[in-house]
Amino acid sequence: MTCRIDRVSTDQGLVLRISGRITQEDLDVLRNALSDRSVAAVELTELELIDRGALKLLAIHEANGIELRHCPAYIREWITRERNSS
């Protein structure tokens, strides 16, 4: 299974719900989805696997104010390491 990105409008803005696996092939789709200025949060409850490039992209967008909701612990740890190494 590849990744699926659902867009859900909320009072706070657009929430992207990502499920499945984000691989290198999905990076452009994720980048395009995150480029929408109304994105307020990314829901990661159903995320199974993430590519390093996608991880870096999520870390950058989180640093720029997009909330990562229900971020699995291993992804949170990788993002923290990525930030500390930059």
What is the mean pLDDT?
Answer: 92
Which segments are poorly predicted (pLDDT under 50) over 5 or more consecutive residues? none
How many distinct helices? Answer: 3
- CATH H-tier superfamily: STAS domain
Q: What is the CATH first-level class name?
A: Alpha Beta
Most strands sheet:
4 strands, mixed
Which structural class do the helices and strands define?
Answer: alpha/beta
CATH topology-level name: Transcription Regulator spoIIAA
Label this structure with key terms:
single chain, alpha/beta, globular, 38% helix, Transcription Regulator spoIIAA
How would you summarize the topology of this molecule?
Blueprint: E1 4-10, E2 13-22, H1 27-34, E3 39-50, H2 52-63, E4 67-69, H3 73-85
Parallel strand pairs: 2-3, 3-4
Antiparallel strand pairs: 1-2
Helix pairs in contact: 1-2, 2-3
How would you characterize the overall build of this protein?
- The chain has helices at 27-34, 52-63, 73-85; strands at 4-10, 13-22, 39-50, 67-69.
- The mean pLDDT is 92.
- The N and C termini lie far apart (31 Å).
- It has three helices and four strands, in the order ββαβαβα.
- The chain has a single domain, classed as Transcription Regulator spoIIAA, CATH 3.30.750.
- Helix content is 38%, strand content 37%.
- A four-stranded mixed beta sheet has the order 1-2-3-4.
- By secondary structure, the chain is α/β, with parallel strands linked by helices.
- It is globular, with a radius of gyration of 12 Å.
